[in-house]
Specification:
The structure holds 4 protein chains of 4 kinds.
Chain A: H1 12-29, H2 41-44, E1 55-62, H3 69-88, E2 96-103, H4 108-121, E3 126-129, H5 133-145, E4 150-152, E5 165-167, H6 172-187, E6 191-197, H7 200-216, E7 220-227, H8 235-244, E8 248-252, H9 256-267, E9 276-279, H10 284-290, H11 292-295, E10 299-302, H12 311-324, H13 332-351, H14 356-362, E11 367-368, E12 376-378, E13 384-385, E14 389-393, E15 399-404
Parallel strand pairs in A: 1-2, 1-3, 3-4, 4-5, 6-7, 6-8, 8-9, 9-10
Antiparallel strand pairs in A: 10-14, 11-12, 12-13, 14-15
Helix pairs in contact in A: 1-13, 3-13, 4-5, 6-7, 9-10, 13-14
Chain C: H1 7-42, H2 49-70, H3 78-100, H4 109-131, E1 147-149, E2 155-157, H5 158-179, H6 182-192, H7 194-199, H8 204-226, H9 236-251, H10 256-276, H11 279-296
Antiparallel strand pairs in C: 1-2
Helix pairs in contact in C: 1-5, 1-8, 1-9, 1-10, 2-3, 2-4, 2-8, 2-9, 3-8, 5-6, 6-8, 9-10, 10-11
Chain D: H1 10-30, H2 33-58, H3 66-85, H4 101-105, H5 121-144, H6 150-170, H7 172-175, E1 186-187, E2 190-191, H8 195-221, H9 223-233, H10 235-239, H11 245-271, H12 281-294, H13 299-319, H14 321-337, H15 342-362, H16 368-374
Antiparallel strand pairs in D: 1-2
The chains are: A alpha/beta, B alpha/beta, C mainly alpha, D mainly alpha.
Chain lengths: 419, 251, 308, 380
């Protein structure tokens, strides 16, 4: 109903499409008593969720404090933007989205506790949230026990699939394999050196990368190193790099360690315009802290870059910076977080109900053509079909997109031959 | 000296005791012997190593070399609490009592029973303990203050309490470091009286400056100077030793 | 793993590895010096030490931004200005904290630990509110980046050399202040006998205040220097705190020489092990070794046997 | 039993009864299951806090590594629960069914030897007590025999916490890494997840907590408690009264470790997972603040302190996440500077005199303070 208040929010074509999608279930399921009337609450909410005639409650669950606040802030911002845009368009099934935001405080049990609060006390229809695997793992049993719906934005290690979770980021094979193939071909790489933070995501990602490199490409991995989270001294491993001279340095170092690693790499005279480095953990967000001059020339393997050239993205970046400040940068995860509310809206409207079971069942096949990264679709396994891209870091902290897969890459959370 | 090989005749035999702190020899090749029921007073100018000798005997400081035999035990190889259990009690120069506990509890803790962890857990305050505590409290003039927090006692009363804590341990060798220091005249008199009663039936090693007091109680006096024995013998003999006179007058 | 490399290669690598160890050594010394003064001389456990370092880092960041926008021609020299400002800012905050908090707690060392931990939480949240939760990137002048070619195959990072020189300078300054200056004698007098020092006319309260301020100020310089090699975010300070305390304790708290020796031992051990095994295991083994040695020799490497 | 060995005096008895009424009657009746489960989670920390009263308040040993013991207890419990949750039927999609999921992800194909005994609940219960006690004994023996205490000990326990965290995170094939052990489901076939199970577990936990409170109270009232106080005051004097100071410290440290471990095991049961984020330095120090807020010398105070701080944390972080850290930081400082005896101190300094006054007016002969002063004394 308030669609017209924000003219130019989306291109006219897409707006029609979205309107059509929104109208479809309403047309099929409800008596056409009046043009603008939303479906009756009793019909679309049979399980006692917090849905009224005018409102539907959704939870946002990220860390606003603690060590992870650095990373999760972007996701919160993106989710709020998406929800505001959806509300400006009239909401979901005629209901405005009301947000309850909870702070996970970078502490996994707190995540579980807050997730439970959102589901049990607030009866939210969906939760946009979590960032680290650990927080997701803590929340997952809660989601399954109390039957909630979680939209999880981060690229992650895979090995998981749940009725109650939609994974809007890439799982490991989706993110890594195409990038490694491309860099191998482009740079004629023969040897790889892995450097990662010591926890499950880098280890699993590196395992998949290693299997791919050794078994599929028949190339060599000459080193694999892990450092405790928060480690800040990398001179020894940099010397090892100098000794082994790998064609490609493949990194998945996270957090504050990232900054230290690239600064010391540059200081040690490893010039990223000559030495190929492929990272799967550095987005525009991280470069903010690392400093563009320290990482320029490195390649990153993601599904989204802020500099991506398409209409959706231009609009998204403009809206995002209008809402959160012109200097705000947008990384891969923020974009994936932005998809969550939109995918949920589309799914609810297709299912014609807020009921979790119906939403979960209706999820496969849901498309979102307005995605900043381009077209995405939910797979049977609740992950997204999406393209993989490689970007080359520029001095100004942005990436030049140098490669993208021709087709959408199928998500494969339990990859055969990679375990 | 004479019968150093048979330390059993002495209660305490200190032989060739040396301790050095970072090169400085606070006690240097010291030997002396204390007999059963002997009252020995150690005197000497400041820094002579008197307190260090007591520290060495009770295990607070480890000797660099030398031996300390107590009956048939070598104290240099034992821990503080084992030395106490062997029968050596020590009073410190400044009153060392437990401010947060009552007088009764202070004495009770020193009662020689239930000294292991398990023993302390199952320790019962029975009639024997209570009677003994009261008896000692009477001796140290604190009977009416048993339930008082020890921190509220006067300085002199704290000294008495610590003496009482030693008394209840019933040690064979009692070591007192300046027991009347910092006391008022009346307290001093009472303390001398107290010491005279408690030194019966045990050996005592006292450090004291108050010559009047020394003369009253000492069987034998040892004069220390720069970590070594300057003179030893009866008070009369020591007083007339020219070396002692020189050291004391020299100051 | 060495089979396929030439002798020259290996020599170069070992030279560079030794250098990496020296850089780590310098980093540890810088971190630990301020703490060694505060903990060693005053017996105060300052859990907010890391936050004082990060204050220095933020000051550096602010200075660099200021020079970039207002004095771009002088940008290449801003780092020296930044370090002085970092020293002043951290030192001043340190003195304020000493006055408001620490001086009430000298008789309760364990309580200073809790109070300064509370302080560290407050400082972290202050940084987050003021500077944002994200890391800030400190831009360095061009001359500090890159590396110096020594031979064909040996090159050393310039910022590493810079940190080493800085460490040397500050260590010498601290040694001079503590052991040669009148003020240093006062500090040591207060450490040894507070009452006596007061009686001979030393203003012990002021000495305490300045000592704490000096320790915090050095932490500020360390934080400033670490913008070259590490990250600057509200929580970065916590990364350093355990390492720093271990260096000080391992050295024997009351001795500057001990602190330096222990920083050297730990850094060499860590950097050598890191070369042969994964960083995680190297860290665990280093920490285990330190804890193990401290259990056998609790007074640390360099503690004097003193007469109590 | 003679009067001195009486376990509690009158005000303490009233305090314990009040706590019992609060935990057993008021909270379960007034809170929904979700909130009650939160209380249960807070109470798991109360075990640690009670242990710290003995070890820190009485023994003067500040351990900044209680998270280590909380974690060891919790992991022991979690290993048992995880094994039960990883039955071959539940894990048939794995390449090796019957082992925990995280092992499968890390290419471990058979259960490591040290996991095997955790199939047995009896072994697990023993391990929950024995493993932390053993660790505490080793650490304590090494440190206290060499007279390491005070600040040194605090720093070394911190380092131990750091080591264990890095190890758990690094050895993810055996420990679940940073994710911890999640998705714990049943205890000997009994589902621990539904609401009614949570309520049963809550009462079980409260019972255990009171067990620990009584043990702590027994220790406090025994001569050992007085020796701990004496030791904190004048360690040398205790030594020269013939006690092995090290042994008593080791004992206090072990008791605190065991309590913490029981808390950890309860946590795994209540919350349904265990992760290395409870092992590290930050949670360990937070646990100390619970004790400090309650009053480091008061066993009951520790429980109230834990509940209060956690309740404040939850409600603050819900409404003002930014303020929470300021609040927590301020709490640390305030407790240290202004209220070193915490809630218990405030109670006995300000509230109790008022209460006494009221009571005296009503029945002049029945003064509580008389009882408490006379208690512990011989003459009665």
């Amino acid at each position: 109903m308030s669609d017209e208040k924000k003219p130019g929010l989306h291109s006219p074509l897409r707006r029609k499409l979205l309107m059509g999608m929104a109208a479809l279930p309403a047309l099929t399921m409800l008596p056409r008593s009046s043009f603008a009337q939303a479906p009756a609450t009793s019909a679309i909410n049979t399980t006692g969720l917090a849905v009224t005639d005018t409102e539907v409650t959704v939870g946002i669950l990220h860390s606003a404090t603690g060590t992870m606040a650095i990373s999760e802030t972007g996701s919160i911002q993106a989710e709020k933007l998406a929800i505001e845009q959806i509300n400006a368009m009239g909401g979901v099934l005629g209901r405005k989205i009301k947000v309850i935001q909870e702070d996970g405080a970078s502490d996994w049990p707190t995540f579980a506790e807050k997730a439970k609060k959102l589901l049990v006390n607030d009866k939210v229809a969906a939760i946009m949230g979590c960032w680290t695997s650990a927080s997701r793992k803590a929340v997952l049993p809660v989601m399954e026990q109390y039957n909630g719906m979680l939209y999880y934005p981060t690229f992650y290690e895979g090995l998981e699939q749940s009725k109650n979770v939609i994974y809007t980021g890439q799982e490991a094979t989706q993110q890594i394999l195409a990038g490694i193939d491309w860099i191998t071909k482009e740079k004629g790489a023969k040897s790889f050196y892995f450097i990662g933070s010591d926890y499950i995501w880098p280890r699993t990602s590196n395992k998949i990368a290693r299997k791919h490199i050794e078994n599929m490409l028949k190339l060599k991995v000459v080193g694999e190193e892990y450092f405790p989270l928060g480690h800040t001294q990398f001179n020894s491993v940099i010397n090892k790099l100098k000794l082994t001279k790998p064609d490609v340095i493949f990194t998945d170092v996270v957090g504050g360690s990232n900054v230290a690693f690239y600064k010391q790499l540059k200081a040690a005279g490893i010039d990223l315009s000559k030495q190929t480095l492929l990272t799967i953990s550095v987005t525009e967000d991280e470069i903010d802290g690392i400093g563009g001059e320290n990482i320029a020339g490195a390649y990153a393997c993601m599904k989204y870059f802020q500099s991506l050239k398409n209409e959706n993205n231009a609009k998204f970046v403009a809206d995002f910076q209008k809402m959160w400040g012109a200097r705000t940068v947008i990384g891969d995860v923020s974009q994936a977080a932005y998809l969550g509310p939109w995918l949920w809206k589309a799914t609810v409207e297709k299912a014609g109900s807020f009921d979790i079971d119906k939403v979960a069942a209706a999820s496969p096949g849901i498309e979102f053509k307005g995605a900043p990264e381009g077209y995405v679709r939910i797979h049977e396994n609740h992950h997204l079909w999406s393209k993989t891209r490689v970007g080359k870091a520029r001095l100004d902290g942005q990436f030049d997109v140098v490669y993208e897969t021709a087709d959408l890459v199928q998500p494969d959370p339990f990859p055969k031959g990679y375990q | 000296m004479l019968i150093g090989h048979q330390p059993k005749d002495f209660l305490l035999a200190v032989e060739g005791l040396t301790v050095s702190f970072d090169g400085f020899k606070a006690v240097n090749d010291l030997s002396f012997y204390v007999e059963e029921n002997e009252i020995r007073v150690i005197i000497g100018p400041n820094g002579a190593g008197k307190t260090t000798v007591l520290d060495l005997i009770c295990g607070k400081t480890k000797a660099t070399s030398g031996a300390i035999h107590f009956r048939d035990k070598d104290l240099t190889k034992m821990k503080e609490n084992q030395i106490v259990q062997a029968g050596v009690g020590r009073k410190f120069q400044t009153p060392s009592i437990y401010d947060d506990l009552t007088v009764f509890e202070n004495l009770e803790i020193s009662f020689p029973r239930g000294r292991s962890v398990f023993g302390a857990l199952t320790f019962k305050r029975d009639a024997i303990v209570r009677d003994r505590v009261e008896e000692v409290a009477e001796m140290i003039f604190l009977k009416d203050r048993l339930n008082m927090s020890a921190e509220l006692l006067s300085h002199g009363q704290k000294q008495w309490l610590e003496i009482g804590m030693l008394l209840i341990q019933d040690p064979d060798l009692l070591m007192l470091d300046e027991p009347v220091a910092g006391m008022s005249v009346s307290e001093r008199i009472k303390t001398a009286e107290l010491l005279n009663t408690i030194i019966k039936n045990r050996s005592v090693l006292v450090i004291e400056h108050d010559m009047k007091f020394v003369e009253d109680i000492a069987h034998k006096v040892t004069v220390l100077h720069q970590g070594q024995i300057l003179s030893e013998g009866s008070m009369e003999k020591v007083k007339n030793d020219p070396k002692v006179i020189e050291v004391y007058l020299g100051h | 793993m060495f089979g396929e490399y030439s002798i020259g290669d290996l020599g170069a690598i070992f030279a560079m590895q030794g250098f990496a160890g020296l850089i780590l050594f310098s980093v540890y010394v810088l971190m630990a010096l301020g703490l060694a003064i505060i903990f060693g001389q005053m017996g105060v456990i300052n859990m907010a030490h890391g936050e004082f370092m990060i204050l220095g880092a933020y000051v550096t960041w602010l200075t660099s931004s200021y020079f970039q926008t207002h004095l771009p021609s002088l940008f290449s020299g801003y780092f020296f200005v930044a370090m002085i400002l970092a020293f002043i800012a951290s030192g001043a905050l340190g003195m304020l904290v000493e006055w408001a908090l620490i001086r009430h707690l000298y008789k309760r060392p364990l309580d200073t630990l809790l109070a300064t931990w509370g302080l560290s939480l407050i400082l972290q949240q202050t940084y987050r509110s003021v500077f944002g939760a994200r890391e800030v990137g400190v831009e360095l002048p061009q001359w500090m980046m890159g590396s110096q070619q020594i031979t064909d195959s040996i090159e050393v990072p310039i910022n590493g050399i810079f940190v080493m020189c800085l460490t040397l300078l500050i260590t010498m300054a601290v040694a001079y202040i503590m052991y040669k200056s009148r003020w240093g004698r006062q500090v040591r007098a207060v450490v040894q006998n507070r009452v006596m020092a007061g009686a001979v006319g030393i203003n012990t309260e002021r000495v305490d205040c300045y000592t704490f301020g000096l320790g915090c100020g050095i932490a500020g310089i360390a934080g400033s220097a670490f913008t070259m090699i590490g990250s600057t975010s509200p929580t970065s300070g916590q990364l350093y705190i355990v390492d720093t305390f271990l260096v000080v304790v391992f050295g024997g708290a009351a001795s500057l020489v001990g602190t330096i020796a222990s920083a050297f031992t730990i850094s060499q051990a860590q950097s050598t092990m890191e070369f042969f095994m994964s960083g995680s295991m190297a860290k665990v083994l280093t920490l285990l070794a330190i804890v193990g040695i401290l259990m056998l020799r609790p007074q640390g490497l360099f503690a004097l046997k003193v007469r109590k | 039993m003679s009067d001195n060995a009486r376990l509690v005096n009158r005000p303490e008895l009233l305090g314990i009864l009040a706590l019992a009424v609060l935990l057993v009657v008021i909270l379960p009746l007034s809170l929904d299951v979700f909130r009650l489960n939160l209380v249960a989670k807070y109470l798991t920390y109360a075990f640690v806090a009670v242990g710290l009263v003995i070890c820190w308040g009485y023994g003067g040993i500040l351990s900044l590594g209680q998270g280590v013991f909380f974690g060891l207890g919790g992991y022991c419990m979690a290993m048992f629960l995880k094994l039960e949750a990883s039955s071959p039927e539940n894990t048939k999609i794995q390449s090796t069914p019957g082992i925990p999921d995280f092992m499968d992800w890390n290419q471990i194909t058979s259960l490591p030897f040290f996991w095997k005994p955790f199939h047995s609940l009896t072994f697990t219960v023993i391990a929950i007590i024995a493993v932390p006690a053993f660790f505490a004994f080793v650490i304590g023996a090494a440190m206290f025999k060499r007279r390491v205490g005070g600040t040194y000990f605090a720093i070394i326990t911190q380092a131990v916490a750091a080591i264990l965290t890095i190890l758990i995170v690094g050895q993810q094939g055996y420990t679940g890494g940073i994710n911890g052990m999640t998705d714990l489901r049943t205890l000997n076939g009994w589902d621990i997840r539904p609401d009614h199970a949570k309520i049963v577990l809550y009462f079980f936990e409260v019972a255990c907590l009171f067990g620990c409170i009584f043990i702590a109270q027994f220790i406090r009232r025994s001569k050992l408690g007085r020796i701990l106080v004496a030791m904190r005051d004048k360690e040398d004097r205790v030594r020269f009264s013939g006690y092995s100071v090290a042994n008593f410290k080791i004992f206090a440290f072990c008791v605190a470790a065991i309590f913490a471990a029981i808390g950890g095991a309860m946590f795994a049961l209540q919350v349904g997972f265990m992760s290395p984020s409870f092992v590290g330095i930050v949670p360990s120090i937070e646990m100390v603040i619970y004790t400090a807020v309650g009053g480091r010398l008061s066993i009951l105070g520790a429980v109230y302190g834990t509940l209060l701080v956690n309740f404040a944390k939850t409600s603050f972080s819900e409404s003002f996440p930014e303020l929470w850290l300021f609040g927590l930081g301020g709490l640390f400082i305030a407790v240290v500077l202004a209220f070193p005896n915490g809630l218990a101190g405030i109670w006995s300094d300000y509230v109790q005199p008022q209460v006494d006054k009221l009571l005296r007016k009503k029945s002049p002969k029945n003064g509580w303070t008389d009882a408490s002063v006379a208690d512990g004394a011989p003459a009665e």
